[in-house]
Predict the structure.
Amino acid sequence: MMQSGKKSSQSQAKGSIRHLLFDVDGTLIDSKRDIAEAQLWVLQQLGVHRHSVDDIYPHIGRPLTEIFVDLLPPEMHGRISEAKRMYIAHYRPRALDTTTLFPGVEATLAALYERGIGMAVATTKSSVTANRVLEHFGLRQYFAHVQGTDETPPKPDPYVIHQILQKQNWQEAHAILVGDSKSDILGARNAGIRVCAVTYGALSRDAVEELQPDFILDAFPDILRLIAA
């Protein structure tokens, strides 16, 4: 089901949707188990054994620094940079162990591509990992640009979104970010574009509604109705 957020009338006035920017984890792919297990491995290697994968799931989609600030005890915050390096090295070769596409993703992207919608990826993953994941699932062909977070500020900083808009010469008024996390919603707002939040990723529907995105989707294929609206 597609639902307009509370700011939908203002959003419609901004212009038709010509460009879609997608988050990856929790939006295109269900990767939470691979991510959580890699982060749990890091914690255990550092001697922190009080967490389970279920404890980590709610943190997925946030910047790594923030995650490790919350999961490591205060006396270990000086090792956050080390924890991030360990995570990247451990996760990258295991990023596809259990990860799957969400239902309808490939067919929906193909339909959007056929309609001439410009599409890009704006992710907290590195560009290397993001491209590897997209190639694995046969999705890379649909995206004009893949912008990872490569030693640059992650969402909710607007950097990755601005990079895409500038490189593709896309106008903010015709662009919308599709994502599943608070960082996605705030990042889109900070970049001056609309945001469509999905309810099957990091946040529950109630949590999504509290953040008041412009649009809310319960299933990925509903994007086609959003474009047609």
Summary: Strands lie at 2-4, 19-22, 29-30, 100-101, 118-122, 145-147, 175-179, 194-198, 215-217.
